[in-house]
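User: Hi! Is it possible to get a structure for several chains at once, not just one? Here's what I have:
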Amino acid sequence: MLLRLRLVVILLAGIGAMPAAERLTISGSSTVQPLVAEIARRFEERHPELRIDVQGGGSSRGVVDVRSGRAHIGMLSRAPTAEERDLKGTIIARDGIACIVHRNNPLTGLTSVEVADLFTGRTASWQALTGIDRSVVIVSKAEGRATLELFLAHFRLKADQIRAQVVIGDNAQGIKTVAANPDGIGYVSIGAAETDIAAGVAIRLVPLDGVTPTSAAVADATWPLARPLTLVTTGSPSATVQAFLTYAASSAVDDLIIDLAFVPPPR
Amino acid sequence: MRRWPDRLLVLSTRGAAVAAASVLALVLGIVLVGAMPALARGGAGFLTGANWSPTTGSFGAWAMIAGSLATAGLALAIALPIGFGCGLASGWILTGAAASSLRALIMVLAGIPSVVLGLWGLTTLVPLIARWHAPGTSLLAAGLVLALMLVPTIALIVDATLRTVPAEQRVAAAALALGRWSTLRAIAGRACRDSLATGGVLAVARALGETMAVLLVAGNVAALPDGLFSPVRTLTGAMALEMAYATGEHRAALFVLAGIAVALVALVLVLLRASGLRPALGAAHA
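Assistant: Yes, the chains can be modeled jointly so their relative placement is included. Here is the combined structure:
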Protein backbone atom coordinates (compact mmCIF):
# COMPACT_ATOMS: atom_id res chain seq x y z
CA MET A 1 0.00 0.00 0.00
CA LEU A 2 2.79 2.36 0.91
CA LEU A 3 4.52 1.48 -2.34
CA ARG A 4 1.36 2.23 -4.30
CA LEU A 5 1.00 5.56 -2.52
CA ARG A 6 4.58 6.43 -3.39
CA LEU A 7 3.89 5.59 -7.05
CA VAL A 8 0.87 7.88 -7.07
CA VAL A 9 2.93 10.69 -5.59
CA ILE A 10 5.62 10.20 -8.23
CA LEU A 11 3.00 10.17 -10.99
CA LEU A 12 1.37 13.34 -9.70
CA ALA A 13 4.75 15.05 -9.41
CA GLY A 14 5.44 14.03 -13.02
CA ILE A 15 2.20 15.64 -14.22
CA GLY A 16 2.98 18.80 -12.30
CA ALA A 17 6.44 19.03 -13.83
CA MET A 18 5.20 18.85 -17.44
CA PRO A 19 5.49 22.11 -19.40
CA ALA A 20 2.14 23.86 -18.95
CA ALA A 21 0.27 24.08 -22.26
CA GLU A 22 -1.97 27.12 -22.53
CA ARG A 23 -5.59 26.10 -22.01
CA LEU A 24 -8.75 27.66 -23.40
CA THR A 25 -12.09 26.54 -21.98
CA ILE A 26 -15.27 27.05 -23.99
CA SER A 27 -18.72 25.98 -22.79
CA GLY A 28 -22.38 26.54 -23.58
CA SER A 29 -25.01 25.69 -26.20
CA SER A 30 -25.08 22.09 -27.40
CA THR A 31 -26.20 23.40 -30.81
CA VAL A 32 -23.03 25.48 -31.22
CA GLN A 33 -20.72 22.92 -29.58
CA PRO A 34 -20.01 20.67 -32.63
CA LEU A 35 -19.12 23.70 -34.78
CA VAL A 36 -16.84 25.27 -32.20
CA ALA A 37 -15.22 21.88 -31.54
CA GLU A 38 -14.27 21.68 -35.25
CA ILE A 39 -13.06 25.29 -35.31
CA ALA A 40 -11.04 24.63 -32.14
CA ARG A 41 -9.41 21.53 -33.64
CA ARG A 42 -8.31 23.53 -36.68
CA PHE A 43 -7.12 26.43 -34.48
CA GLU A 44 -5.09 23.99 -32.34
CA GLU A 45 -3.30 22.72 -35.47
CA ARG A 46 -2.14 26.27 -36.16
CA HIS A 47 -1.22 26.84 -32.49
CA PRO A 48 0.31 23.57 -31.20
CA GLU A 49 1.01 25.03 -27.75
CA LEU A 50 -2.71 25.62 -27.18
CA ARG A 51 -5.25 23.14 -25.74
CA ILE A 52 -8.92 24.00 -26.25
CA ASP A 53 -11.61 22.27 -24.20
CA VAL A 54 -15.14 22.58 -25.63
CA GLN A 55 -18.06 21.56 -23.39
CA GLY A 56 -21.85 21.57 -23.93
CA GLY A 57 -24.51 22.27 -21.34
CA GLY A 58 -26.74 24.89 -22.93
CA SER A 59 -26.56 28.62 -23.61
CA SER A 60 -27.37 29.58 -20.02
CA ARG A 61 -24.41 27.55 -18.81
CA GLY A 62 -22.17 29.41 -21.27
CA VAL A 63 -23.23 32.74 -19.77
CA VAL A 64 -22.78 31.51 -16.19
CA ASP A 65 -19.38 29.96 -16.92
CA VAL A 66 -18.01 33.10 -18.60
CA ARG A 67 -19.26 35.33 -15.80
CA SER A 68 -17.79 33.06 -13.10
CA GLY A 69 -14.51 32.63 -14.99
CA ARG A 70 -14.93 28.84 -15.39
CA ALA A 71 -14.84 29.32 -19.17
CA HIS A 72 -13.00 31.85 -21.32
CA ILE A 73 -15.66 31.81 -24.02
CA GLY A 74 -19.38 30.99 -23.81
CA MET A 75 -21.43 29.58 -26.69
CA LEU A 76 -24.98 30.91 -27.18
CA SER A 77 -27.52 29.63 -29.71
CA ARG A 78 -29.18 33.08 -29.59
CA ALA A 79 -28.28 36.75 -29.40
CA PRO A 80 -27.25 37.99 -25.93
CA THR A 81 -30.28 39.32 -24.00
CA ALA A 82 -30.66 42.74 -22.41
CA GLU A 83 -29.43 41.33 -19.06
CA GLU A 84 -26.30 40.06 -20.79
CA ARG A 85 -25.00 43.47 -21.91
CA ASP A 86 -21.90 42.91 -19.74
CA LEU A 87 -20.78 40.26 -22.25
CA LYS A 88 -19.20 40.89 -25.65
CA GLY A 89 -20.82 38.87 -28.45
CA THR A 90 -19.36 37.64 -31.76
CA ILE A 91 -21.71 36.02 -34.30
CA ILE A 92 -20.04 33.02 -35.97
CA ALA A 93 -22.96 31.46 -37.89
CA ARG A 94 -26.76 31.43 -38.27
CA ASP A 95 -29.18 28.62 -37.57
CA GLY A 96 -32.87 28.25 -38.35
CA ILE A 97 -35.36 26.12 -36.45
CA ALA A 98 -38.37 24.48 -38.07
CA CYS A 99 -41.12 22.00 -37.32
CA ILE A 100 -40.49 18.37 -38.17
CA VAL A 101 -42.98 15.54 -38.64
CA HIS A 102 -42.61 11.85 -39.45
CA ARG A 103 -41.75 11.11 -43.12
CA ASN A 104 -45.13 9.37 -43.62
CA ASN A 105 -47.11 12.39 -42.41
CA PRO A 106 -48.74 13.93 -45.55
CA LEU A 107 -48.70 17.46 -44.06
CA THR A 108 -47.63 19.95 -46.78
CA GLY A 109 -47.23 23.08 -44.68
CA LEU A 110 -48.43 25.05 -41.66
CA THR A 111 -49.32 28.67 -40.97
CA SER A 112 -48.10 30.37 -37.80
CA VAL A 113 -51.65 30.21 -36.42
CA GLU A 114 -51.84 26.47 -37.09
CA VAL A 115 -48.50 25.89 -35.35
CA ALA A 116 -49.68 27.85 -32.30
CA ASP A 117 -53.00 25.93 -32.27
CA LEU A 118 -51.15 22.59 -32.45
CA PHE A 119 -48.68 23.35 -29.68
CA THR A 120 -51.27 24.86 -27.32
CA GLY A 121 -53.55 21.84 -27.74
CA ARG A 122 -56.39 23.66 -29.57
CA THR A 123 -55.83 21.29 -32.51
CA ALA A 124 -55.64 17.84 -30.90
CA SER A 125 -56.16 15.69 -34.01
CA TRP A 126 -54.50 15.60 -37.44
CA GLN A 127 -58.01 15.32 -39.00
CA ALA A 128 -58.38 18.96 -40.11
CA LEU A 129 -54.78 19.28 -41.34
CA THR A 130 -54.10 15.97 -43.10
CA GLY A 131 -57.41 14.11 -43.05
CA ILE A 132 -55.95 11.40 -40.82
CA ASP A 133 -57.93 10.94 -37.62
CA ARG A 134 -55.05 10.43 -35.16
CA SER A 135 -54.13 12.33 -31.99
CA VAL A 136 -51.32 14.84 -32.44
CA VAL A 137 -48.23 14.04 -30.35
CA ILE A 138 -46.52 17.29 -29.42
CA VAL A 139 -42.76 17.03 -28.91
CA SER A 140 -41.40 20.10 -27.14
CA LYS A 141 -38.15 21.08 -25.47
CA ALA A 142 -37.55 21.31 -21.72
CA GLU A 143 -38.25 24.74 -20.24
CA GLY A 144 -35.27 27.07 -20.44
CA ARG A 145 -33.76 25.64 -23.65
CA ALA A 146 -32.77 28.32 -26.18
CA THR A 147 -34.68 26.59 -29.02
CA LEU A 148 -37.88 26.68 -26.95
CA GLU A 149 -37.38 30.35 -26.07
CA LEU A 150 -36.96 31.24 -29.77
CA PHE A 151 -40.00 29.14 -30.70
CA LEU A 152 -42.14 30.74 -27.97
CA ALA A 153 -41.03 34.27 -28.84
CA HIS A 154 -41.79 33.79 -32.54
CA PHE A 155 -45.30 32.44 -32.00
CA ARG A 156 -45.96 34.79 -29.04
CA LEU A 157 -46.62 31.92 -26.66
CA LYS A 158 -45.76 31.33 -22.99
CA ALA A 159 -44.04 28.18 -21.75
CA ASP A 160 -47.06 27.07 -19.70
CA GLN A 161 -49.37 27.25 -22.76
CA ILE A 162 -47.53 24.43 -24.52
CA ARG A 163 -49.38 21.11 -24.19
CA ALA A 164 -46.58 18.63 -24.82
CA GLN A 165 -46.86 14.85 -24.73
CA VAL A 166 -43.10 14.40 -24.97
CA VAL A 167 -40.49 16.70 -23.45
CA ILE A 168 -36.99 16.36 -24.86
CA GLY A 169 -33.50 17.72 -24.27
CA ASP A 170 -31.37 18.18 -27.37
CA ASN A 171 -32.02 18.13 -31.15
CA ALA A 172 -30.86 14.53 -31.53
CA GLN A 173 -33.43 13.33 -28.99
CA GLY A 174 -36.14 15.39 -30.72
CA ILE A 175 -35.36 13.91 -34.14
CA LYS A 176 -35.23 10.34 -32.76
CA THR A 177 -38.55 10.86 -30.98
CA VAL A 178 -40.39 12.19 -34.06
CA ALA A 179 -38.81 9.53 -36.31
CA ALA A 180 -40.23 6.92 -33.93
CA ASN A 181 -43.73 8.44 -33.88
CA PRO A 182 -45.87 8.85 -37.05
CA ASP A 183 -48.21 11.27 -35.20
CA GLY A 184 -45.44 13.40 -33.72
CA ILE A 185 -44.55 17.01 -34.43
CA GLY A 186 -41.58 18.78 -32.92
CA TYR A 187 -39.17 21.60 -33.69
CA VAL A 188 -35.40 21.33 -34.11
CA SER A 189 -32.47 23.03 -35.86
CA ILE A 190 -32.86 22.96 -39.65
CA GLY A 191 -29.16 22.07 -39.89
CA ALA A 192 -29.50 19.04 -37.59
CA ALA A 193 -32.68 17.91 -39.38
CA GLU A 194 -31.16 18.27 -42.90
CA THR A 195 -28.13 16.19 -41.88
CA ASP A 196 -30.32 13.41 -40.47
CA ILE A 197 -32.75 13.49 -43.42
CA ALA A 198 -29.77 13.06 -45.77
CA ALA A 199 -28.73 10.09 -43.65
CA GLY A 200 -32.14 8.49 -44.16
CA VAL A 201 -33.84 9.29 -40.83
CA ALA A 202 -37.65 9.11 -41.20
CA ILE A 203 -38.53 12.79 -40.68
CA ARG A 204 -39.58 15.73 -42.88
CA LEU A 205 -39.17 19.50 -42.42
CA VAL A 206 -42.49 21.39 -42.56
CA PRO A 207 -42.83 24.68 -44.54
CA LEU A 208 -44.07 27.61 -42.43
CA ASP A 209 -46.32 30.34 -43.90
CA GLY A 210 -45.33 29.21 -47.40
CA VAL A 211 -41.56 29.35 -46.80
CA THR A 212 -39.62 26.10 -47.17
CA PRO A 213 -37.10 25.57 -44.38
CA THR A 214 -33.67 25.19 -45.99
CA SER A 215 -30.18 26.39 -45.13
CA ALA A 216 -30.39 28.75 -48.12
CA ALA A 217 -33.55 30.36 -46.72
CA VAL A 218 -31.76 30.86 -43.41
CA ALA A 219 -28.78 32.44 -45.19
CA ASP A 220 -30.81 34.98 -47.18
CA ALA A 221 -32.99 35.70 -44.12
CA THR A 222 -36.25 34.64 -45.83
CA TRP A 223 -36.73 31.96 -43.13
CA PRO A 224 -38.41 33.76 -40.21
CA LEU A 225 -37.48 31.42 -37.33
CA ALA A 226 -33.71 31.91 -37.20
CA ARG A 227 -31.11 32.69 -34.58
CA PRO A 228 -27.48 33.80 -34.51
CA LEU A 229 -24.88 31.42 -33.03
CA THR A 230 -22.83 33.68 -30.81
CA LEU A 231 -19.61 33.44 -28.84
CA VAL A 232 -19.50 35.62 -25.72
CA THR A 233 -16.60 36.76 -23.55
CA THR A 234 -16.17 39.22 -20.73
CA GLY A 235 -15.41 42.82 -21.65
CA SER A 236 -11.63 42.41 -21.87
CA PRO A 237 -10.61 39.09 -23.47
CA SER A 238 -6.96 37.95 -23.45
CA ALA A 239 -4.90 38.05 -26.67
CA THR A 240 -5.36 34.29 -27.19
CA VAL A 241 -9.12 34.51 -26.71
CA GLN A 242 -9.29 37.47 -29.10
CA ALA A 243 -7.25 35.56 -31.71
CA PHE A 244 -9.67 32.62 -31.46
CA LEU A 245 -12.71 34.90 -31.80
CA THR A 246 -11.24 36.59 -34.88
CA TYR A 247 -10.48 33.19 -36.43
CA ALA A 248 -13.94 31.77 -35.63
CA ALA A 249 -15.61 34.79 -37.27
CA SER A 250 -13.44 34.66 -40.40
CA SER A 251 -14.25 33.06 -43.76
CA ALA A 252 -11.53 30.45 -43.01
CA VAL A 253 -14.17 28.38 -41.18
CA ASP A 254 -16.97 28.70 -43.77
CA ASP A 255 -16.47 25.11 -44.93
CA LEU A 256 -16.90 23.85 -41.34
CA ILE A 257 -20.09 25.90 -40.93
CA ILE A 258 -21.52 24.51 -44.17
CA ASP A 259 -20.45 20.95 -43.29
CA LEU A 260 -22.51 21.17 -40.09
CA ALA A 261 -25.47 22.57 -42.06
CA PHE A 262 -25.34 25.96 -40.41
CA VAL A 263 -25.13 29.13 -42.47
CA PRO A 264 -22.16 31.56 -42.58
CA PRO A 265 -23.13 35.08 -41.45
CA PRO A 266 -22.84 38.04 -43.86
CA ARG A 267 -19.17 39.12 -43.72
CA MET B 1 1.80 -6.79 20.17
CA ARG B 2 0.04 -7.90 17.01
CA ARG B 3 2.02 -8.52 13.89
CA TRP B 4 1.97 -5.84 11.23
CA PRO B 5 -0.15 -7.69 8.61
CA ASP B 6 -2.96 -7.84 11.20
CA ARG B 7 -2.64 -4.21 11.99
CA LEU B 8 -2.58 -3.31 8.30
CA LEU B 9 -5.74 -5.34 7.72
CA VAL B 10 -7.55 -3.59 10.56
CA LEU B 11 -6.37 -0.17 9.46
CA SER B 12 -7.18 -0.64 5.79
CA THR B 13 -10.66 -2.08 6.38
CA ARG B 14 -11.45 0.71 8.82
CA GLY B 15 -10.09 3.16 6.28
CA ALA B 16 -12.35 1.72 3.58
CA ALA B 17 -15.37 1.93 5.88
CA VAL B 18 -14.63 5.53 6.77
CA ALA B 19 -14.04 6.38 3.10
CA ALA B 20 -17.39 4.90 2.04
CA ALA B 21 -19.23 6.65 4.85
CA SER B 22 -17.57 10.00 4.18
CA VAL B 23 -18.34 9.84 0.44
CA LEU B 24 -22.02 9.45 1.34
CA ALA B 25 -21.78 12.29 3.86
CA LEU B 26 -20.04 14.45 1.28
CA VAL B 27 -22.71 13.77 -1.36
CA LEU B 28 -25.52 14.50 1.09
CA GLY B 29 -23.70 17.66 2.19
CA ILE B 30 -23.29 18.91 -1.39
CA VAL B 31 -26.93 18.16 -2.18
CA LEU B 32 -28.05 19.97 0.97
CA VAL B 33 -25.87 23.02 0.32
CA GLY B 34 -27.01 23.13 -3.31
CA ALA B 35 -30.65 22.85 -2.29
CA MET B 36 -30.48 25.46 0.49
CA PRO B 37 -31.56 28.53 -1.53
CA ALA B 38 -34.65 26.74 -2.84
CA LEU B 39 -35.52 25.13 0.50
CA ALA B 40 -35.28 28.49 2.24
CA ARG B 41 -37.80 29.98 -0.18
CA GLY B 42 -40.03 27.07 -1.19
CA GLY B 43 -40.17 25.03 2.01
CA ALA B 44 -42.74 22.23 1.95
CA GLY B 45 -44.15 23.52 -1.35
CA PHE B 46 -41.82 21.10 -3.07
CA LEU B 47 -43.63 18.08 -1.72
CA THR B 48 -47.19 19.27 -2.17
CA GLY B 49 -47.10 21.30 -5.41
CA ALA B 50 -47.56 19.45 -8.69
CA ASN B 51 -46.76 22.38 -10.99
CA TRP B 52 -43.14 22.39 -12.21
CA SER B 53 -42.48 25.46 -14.32
CA PRO B 54 -38.92 26.77 -13.96
CA THR B 55 -39.43 29.87 -16.13
CA THR B 56 -42.22 31.12 -13.87
CA GLY B 57 -40.43 30.05 -10.66
CA SER B 58 -42.93 27.34 -9.72
CA PHE B 59 -41.22 24.22 -8.34
CA GLY B 60 -43.70 21.55 -7.26
CA ALA B 61 -41.98 18.16 -7.24
CA TRP B 62 -45.01 15.99 -6.52
CA ALA B 63 -45.53 15.07 -10.19
CA MET B 64 -41.95 13.83 -10.41
CA ILE B 65 -42.07 11.98 -7.07
CA ALA B 66 -45.18 10.22 -8.36
CA GLY B 67 -43.44 9.61 -11.69
CA SER B 68 -40.43 7.99 -10.04
CA LEU B 69 -42.55 5.84 -7.71
CA ALA B 70 -44.91 4.78 -10.50
CA THR B 71 -42.15 3.76 -12.93
CA ALA B 72 -40.19 1.94 -10.21
CA GLY B 73 -43.33 0.19 -8.92
CA LEU B 74 -44.49 -0.86 -12.37
CA ALA B 75 -41.01 -2.09 -13.31
CA LEU B 76 -40.75 -4.12 -10.10
CA ALA B 77 -44.22 -5.61 -10.60
CA ILE B 78 -43.17 -6.82 -14.06
CA ALA B 79 -39.61 -7.83 -13.21
CA LEU B 80 -40.13 -9.60 -9.87
CA PRO B 81 -42.10 -12.61 -11.17
CA ILE B 82 -40.03 -12.88 -14.37
CA GLY B 83 -36.72 -12.49 -12.54
CA PHE B 84 -37.81 -15.01 -9.89
CA GLY B 85 -38.82 -17.45 -12.62
CA CYS B 86 -35.48 -17.08 -14.41
CA GLY B 87 -33.53 -17.52 -11.17
CA LEU B 88 -35.60 -20.54 -10.22
CA ALA B 89 -35.01 -22.08 -13.63
CA SER B 90 -31.24 -21.57 -13.65
CA GLY B 91 -30.63 -22.29 -9.95
CA TRP B 92 -33.11 -25.05 -9.18
CA ILE B 93 -35.01 -26.66 -12.02
CA LEU B 94 -32.48 -26.82 -14.84
CA THR B 95 -29.18 -28.66 -14.49
CA GLY B 96 -25.88 -28.89 -16.34
CA ALA B 97 -25.41 -27.07 -19.63
CA ALA B 98 -28.97 -25.76 -19.78
CA ALA B 99 -28.60 -24.08 -16.37
CA SER B 100 -25.21 -22.58 -17.12
CA SER B 101 -26.27 -21.25 -20.53
CA LEU B 102 -29.38 -19.62 -19.05
CA ARG B 103 -27.15 -18.13 -16.34
CA ALA B 104 -24.75 -16.79 -18.99
CA LEU B 105 -27.69 -15.30 -20.90
CA ILE B 106 -28.93 -13.49 -17.79
CA MET B 107 -25.43 -12.14 -17.15
CA VAL B 108 -25.23 -10.79 -20.71
CA LEU B 109 -28.60 -9.10 -20.19
CA ALA B 110 -27.25 -7.60 -16.95
CA GLY B 111 -24.26 -6.25 -18.88
CA ILE B 112 -26.17 -4.38 -21.59
CA PRO B 113 -25.61 -0.65 -21.06
CA SER B 114 -28.88 0.96 -20.01
CA VAL B 115 -28.76 3.58 -22.78
CA VAL B 116 -28.80 0.77 -25.36
CA LEU B 117 -32.01 -0.57 -23.79
CA GLY B 118 -33.33 3.01 -23.85
CA LEU B 119 -32.62 3.40 -27.57
CA TRP B 120 -34.25 0.04 -28.25
CA GLY B 121 -37.24 1.24 -26.24
CA LEU B 122 -37.44 4.49 -28.24
CA THR B 123 -37.11 2.93 -31.69
CA THR B 124 -39.07 -0.30 -31.16
CA LEU B 125 -41.19 -0.31 -28.02
CA VAL B 126 -42.49 3.27 -28.19
CA PRO B 127 -43.82 3.00 -31.80
CA LEU B 128 -45.52 -0.28 -30.83
CA ILE B 129 -47.25 1.33 -27.86
CA ALA B 130 -48.07 4.42 -29.96
CA ARG B 131 -49.91 2.27 -32.48
CA TRP B 132 -52.04 1.00 -29.61
CA HIS B 133 -52.42 4.26 -27.71
CA ALA B 134 -50.73 7.64 -28.46
CA PRO B 135 -48.21 9.08 -27.62
CA GLY B 136 -46.19 5.90 -26.93
CA THR B 137 -43.62 7.58 -24.74
CA SER B 138 -45.28 6.69 -21.46
CA LEU B 139 -45.25 5.22 -17.98
CA LEU B 140 -45.74 1.82 -19.62
CA ALA B 141 -42.70 2.20 -21.90
CA ALA B 142 -40.53 3.39 -19.00
CA GLY B 143 -41.74 0.53 -16.78
CA LEU B 144 -41.03 -2.10 -19.45
CA VAL B 145 -37.53 -0.79 -20.27
CA LEU B 146 -36.70 -0.58 -16.55
CA ALA B 147 -38.08 -4.07 -15.97
CA LEU B 148 -35.61 -5.38 -18.57
CA MET B 149 -32.80 -3.98 -16.43
CA LEU B 150 -34.19 -5.35 -13.17
CA VAL B 151 -34.86 -8.93 -14.32
CA PRO B 152 -31.17 -9.99 -14.34
CA THR B 153 -30.51 -8.40 -10.92
CA ILE B 154 -33.35 -10.34 -9.34
CA ALA B 155 -32.65 -13.54 -11.28
CA LEU B 156 -28.95 -13.64 -10.36
CA ILE B 157 -29.65 -13.13 -6.65
CA VAL B 158 -32.31 -15.85 -6.60
CA ASP B 159 -30.00 -18.13 -8.59
CA ALA B 160 -27.08 -17.55 -6.19
CA THR B 161 -29.29 -18.24 -3.17
CA LEU B 162 -30.73 -21.47 -4.56
CA ARG B 163 -27.30 -22.81 -5.40
CA THR B 164 -26.27 -22.51 -1.74
CA VAL B 165 -29.12 -24.81 -0.64
CA PRO B 166 -27.38 -27.98 0.71
CA ALA B 167 -27.89 -31.02 -1.51
CA GLU B 168 -28.90 -33.01 1.61
CA GLN B 169 -32.15 -31.04 1.83
CA ARG B 170 -33.13 -32.02 -1.71
CA VAL B 171 -32.14 -35.62 -1.02
CA ALA B 172 -34.19 -35.58 2.17
CA ALA B 173 -37.19 -34.18 0.30
CA ALA B 174 -36.86 -36.94 -2.28
CA ALA B 175 -36.59 -39.52 0.51
CA LEU B 176 -39.84 -38.19 1.97
CA ALA B 177 -41.39 -38.71 -1.48
CA LEU B 178 -42.24 -35.01 -1.80
CA GLY B 179 -43.34 -33.99 -5.28
CA ARG B 180 -41.57 -31.33 -7.32
CA TRP B 181 -43.96 -28.61 -6.30
CA SER B 182 -43.84 -29.46 -2.58
CA THR B 183 -40.03 -29.58 -2.61
CA LEU B 184 -39.97 -26.22 -4.34
CA ARG B 185 -42.32 -24.67 -1.82
CA ALA B 186 -40.73 -26.18 1.28
CA ILE B 187 -37.06 -25.67 0.45
CA ALA B 188 -36.58 -23.22 -2.41
CA GLY B 189 -39.44 -20.98 -1.34
CA ARG B 190 -38.06 -20.63 2.17
CA ALA B 191 -34.51 -20.06 0.96
CA CYS B 192 -35.62 -17.39 -1.49
CA ARG B 193 -37.84 -15.32 0.77
CA ASP B 194 -35.05 -13.09 1.99
CA SER B 195 -33.15 -13.05 -1.28
CA LEU B 196 -36.26 -11.91 -3.14
CA ALA B 197 -36.48 -9.01 -0.68
CA THR B 198 -32.82 -8.24 -1.35
CA GLY B 199 -33.34 -8.41 -5.09
CA GLY B 200 -36.44 -6.25 -4.80
CA VAL B 201 -34.63 -3.58 -2.81
CA LEU B 202 -31.65 -3.48 -5.16
CA ALA B 203 -34.07 -3.35 -8.08
CA VAL B 204 -36.11 -0.49 -6.63
CA ALA B 205 -32.93 1.45 -5.83
CA ARG B 206 -31.75 0.96 -9.40
CA ALA B 207 -35.17 1.86 -10.82
CA LEU B 208 -35.28 5.09 -8.82
CA GLY B 209 -31.76 5.96 -9.95
CA GLU B 210 -31.88 4.97 -13.61
CA THR B 211 -31.84 8.09 -15.77
CA MET B 212 -30.88 8.01 -19.45
CA ALA B 213 -32.89 5.02 -20.64
CA VAL B 214 -36.01 6.30 -18.89
CA LEU B 215 -35.43 9.81 -20.24
CA LEU B 216 -35.61 8.45 -23.80
CA VAL B 217 -38.93 6.61 -23.42
CA ALA B 218 -40.89 8.25 -20.59
CA GLY B 219 -42.05 11.42 -22.38
CA ASN B 220 -40.81 13.57 -19.46
CA VAL B 221 -43.91 15.76 -19.12
CA ALA B 222 -43.90 17.15 -15.57
CA ALA B 223 -47.54 16.34 -14.78
CA LEU B 224 -49.22 13.69 -12.64
CA PRO B 225 -49.68 10.54 -14.75
CA ASP B 226 -53.33 9.50 -15.07
CA GLY B 227 -52.76 6.06 -16.57
CA LEU B 228 -50.30 3.62 -18.09
CA PHE B 229 -50.23 5.57 -21.36
CA SER B 230 -49.51 9.02 -19.86
CA PRO B 231 -46.04 10.45 -20.17
CA VAL B 232 -44.18 10.72 -16.85
CA ARG B 233 -41.12 12.56 -15.65
CA THR B 234 -38.91 11.00 -13.01
CA LEU B 235 -36.84 12.89 -10.42
CA THR B 236 -33.58 11.86 -12.06
CA GLY B 237 -35.01 12.57 -15.52
CA ALA B 238 -35.77 16.15 -14.49
CA MET B 239 -32.20 16.58 -13.26
CA ALA B 240 -30.73 15.18 -16.49
CA LEU B 241 -33.00 17.35 -18.66
CA GLU B 242 -32.50 20.64 -16.89
CA MET B 243 -29.33 20.59 -14.75
CA ALA B 244 -27.16 21.35 -17.79
CA TYR B 245 -28.50 24.87 -18.19
CA ALA B 246 -30.28 25.57 -14.89
CA THR B 247 -29.13 28.57 -12.89
CA GLY B 248 -30.06 30.23 -9.61
CA GLU B 249 -33.21 29.04 -7.89
CA HIS B 250 -33.96 26.57 -10.70
CA ARG B 251 -30.60 24.87 -10.07
CA ALA B 252 -31.25 24.79 -6.32
CA ALA B 253 -34.68 23.23 -6.98
CA LEU B 254 -32.99 20.45 -8.98
CA PHE B 255 -30.75 19.78 -5.97
CA VAL B 256 -33.92 19.42 -3.89
CA LEU B 257 -35.06 16.75 -6.38
CA ALA B 258 -31.72 14.99 -5.87
CA GLY B 259 -32.30 15.03 -2.11
CA ILE B 260 -35.81 13.64 -2.56
CA ALA B 261 -34.47 10.83 -4.78
CA VAL B 262 -31.91 9.84 -2.10
CA ALA B 263 -34.61 10.04 0.58
CA LEU B 264 -36.90 7.73 -1.42
CA VAL B 265 -34.19 5.07 -1.67
CA ALA B 266 -33.50 5.38 2.07
CA LEU B 267 -37.23 5.08 2.76
CA VAL B 268 -37.44 1.84 0.78
CA LEU B 269 -34.59 0.39 2.89
CA VAL B 270 -36.20 1.48 6.15
CA LEU B 271 -39.57 0.02 5.16
CA LEU B 272 -37.89 -3.26 4.30
CA ARG B 273 -36.13 -3.36 7.69
CA ALA B 274 -39.43 -2.72 9.42
CA SER B 275 -41.06 -5.54 7.47
CA GLY B 276 -38.89 -8.11 9.29
CA LEU B 277 -37.25 -9.64 6.22
CA ARG B 278 -33.49 -10.01 6.34
CA PRO B 279 -32.06 -8.85 3.07
CA ALA B 280 -28.35 -9.67 3.14
CA LEU B 281 -27.25 -7.00 0.66
CA GLY B 282 -29.98 -4.55 1.55
CA ALA B 283 -28.76 -4.48 5.15
CA ALA B 284 -25.28 -3.67 3.90
CA HIS B 285 -26.77 -0.77 1.98
CA ALA B 286 -28.59 0.61 4.99
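The longest helix of chain A spans residues 2-17. Residues 31 and 87 of chain A are 20 Å apart (CA to CA).

User: Great, thank you!
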